[in-house]
Amino acid sequence: MAPRSCALCQKAKAMLKRPKTGQQICRDCFFYVFETEVHNTITEAQLFNPGDRVAIGASGGKDSTVLAYVMKTLNERYQYGLELFLLSIDEGITGYRDDSLETVKRNQEQYNMPLKILSYDELYGWTMDAIVSQVGRKNNCTFCGVFRRQALDRGAAMLNVDHIVTGHNADDIAETVLMNIMRGDIARLGRCTSICTQGEDTIRRSKPFKYAYEKEIVMYAYFKKLDYFSTECIYSPDAYRGHARAFLKDLEAARPSAIIDIIHSGEAFEIKEEVKATQKVQQTCQRCGYMSSNPLCKACTLLEGLERGMANSGITDRARKKLDAGGPAPDNIRTIPFFSRMNSGGNPAIAVEQPS
Amino acid sequence: MSKVSLKIEFGGGLELLFDNQRSYRIDVPSEVPIDNSTDEESLSTKEKKPVDVKYLIHHMRDHMLKERVELFMEKDTVRPGILVLINDTDWELEGEGDYKLKSGDEIVFISTLHGG
């Protein structure tokens, strides 16, 4: 095939085919359109205000590495006036997270951004290695997901930031739409396509890569020679998501617009008022002050189960009843430090104390 | 039999399937069986075509891949979610599997399926 010239500048050799548009473009035009689309996503959704302190949720993987690079680039190019931080959660997975955190530490120097690492061990008193040794490899992703969400908010509170951005890309969101439909999870289906979410006293969370295809993120990292880490978690990946992912990739191979189409479908769902009415109201957890739809938040429930040696009590209702039947939580179990957030002052917003 | 010399690179975690080695230099025959079989006998007896990327993928599966073929190939090509670059250009612009390989070509395979 004869080399084609770029559909945008008409000069340089085309080096990639955009999945979203089918356009064949050169490397420099690709950098420009990719960055500009993210900028447009940010400005159209009015994600930031000048002076905001923003934490980038950084795992060392491709998405968050590219996000940190692009956020830094756009903040300088368009003078957003943001103060950027890297925030990493150390789940305590030997041979996986410890390696990827080394990548984040290099990113800290390469991008010249302050880095905060918060560990499960510090916050919950349990590493994922310890959790897996207790619960096995079946439900460990539930613990990890619930714990990570809360840890990110708490790490962000320690940094006293206004906002967390995460590297979730268009493929991730389309996968989540599919999973929520297949599980009939109407509440999450309504939320999962939002570019920005905010709990009552939690920090704003948004996804500047909502419309960025994974293929383009990986190509961007490759062409820019960005330093990222790519190893699958050693504790078997989320199998359900794996199936949704494989299905989505097959759809994309047949029709590349499938990813954006599914996101649009998710956005277009309208949820009837009577269905909304059955959804639980947000409250704060009695024990730790974090947002919750029950008197006790999911993280506290899971932690209590671990501490009392009944780890499944946070997973199934039946096991939960068994736990409750065993009486109230003993006073001597480890709990999560109380969550509160202050908007002013430079002090860390939560007291970090190690329960004895 | 004349040979074509190639450089193969892996990224995004795909190297884990190939002995955790990121870069290989390999030779493949310049004429290969039309049905992409890679054994010695087929190479000498079967009807031939000039070597292309499709053959290379079969060669990699049969002679280089160390584990879990389903994570590398699906049907007759790479699994969806694996990006291929030919001399730093998206293979979708180069005819994908039909691209005719020549000595000095550099082929990069990157998995997009590993971790965020």
From TrEMBL, chain A:
The keyword tRNA-binding applies. ATP binds at residues 57-59, 63, 89, 167, 172. GO terms for molecular function: ATP binding; nucleotidyltransferase activity; tRNA binding. Keywords: ATP-binding, Cytoplasm, Nucleotide-binding, RNA-binding, Transferase, tRNA processing, tRNA-binding. This is Cytoplasmic tRNA 2-thiolation protein 1. Coiled coil: none annotated. One of its GO terms (biological process) is protein urmylation. It is found in: Cytoplasm. It comes from Gymnopilus dilepis. Residues 283-312 form the Cytoplasmic tRNA 2-thiolation protein 1 C-terminal domain. Its EC number is 2.7.7.-. SUPFAM superfamilies: Adenine nucleotide alpha hydrolases-like. It holds the Pfam family ATP_bind_3. HAMAP family: CTU1. CDD domains: CTU1-like. InterPro entries: CTU1-like_ATP-bd, CTU1_C, Ncs6/Tuc1/Ctu1, Rossmann-like_a/b/a_fold, TilS/TtcA_N, tRNA_thiolation_TtcA_Ctu1.
UniProtKB/TrEMBL annotation, chain B:
Pathway: tRNA modification; 5-methoxycarbonylmethyl-2-thiouridine-tRNA biosynthesis. The keyword Nucleus does not apply. One of its GO terms (cellular component) is cytosol. It comes from Gymnopilus dilepis. It is found in: Cytoplasm. C-terminal thiocarboxylation occurs in 2 steps, it is first acyl-adenylated (-COAMP) via the hesA/moeB/thiF part of UBA4, then thiocarboxylated (-COSH) via the rhodanese domain of UBA4. It comes from the Eukaryota. Its main location: cytoplasm. The keyword Cytoplasm applies. The gene is URM1. There is a cross-link at residue 116 (Glycyl lysine isopeptide (Gly-Lys) (interchain with K-? in acceptor proteins)). Signal peptide: none annotated. Keywords: Cytoplasm, Isopeptide bond, tRNA processing, Ubl conjugation pathway. Acts as a sulfur carrier required for 2-thiolation of mcm(5)S(2)U at tRNA wobble positions of cytosolic tRNA(Lys), tRNA(Glu) and tRNA(Gln). Serves as sulfur donor in tRNA 2-thiolation reaction by being thiocarboxylated (-COSH) at its C-terminus by the MOCS3 homolog UBA4. The sulfur is then transferred to tRNA to form 2-thiolation of mcm(5)S(2)U. Prior mcm(5) tRNA modification by the elongator complex is required for 2-thiolation. Also acts as a ubiquitin-like protein (UBL) that is covalently conjugated via an isopeptide bond to lysine residues of target proteins such as AHP1. The lineage of its organism: Eukaryota, Fungi, Dikarya, Basidiomycota, Agaricomycotina. One of its GO terms (biological process) is tRNA wobble uridine modification. Belongs to the URM1 family. The modification 1-thioglycine is found at residue 116. This is Ubiquitin-related modifier 1.
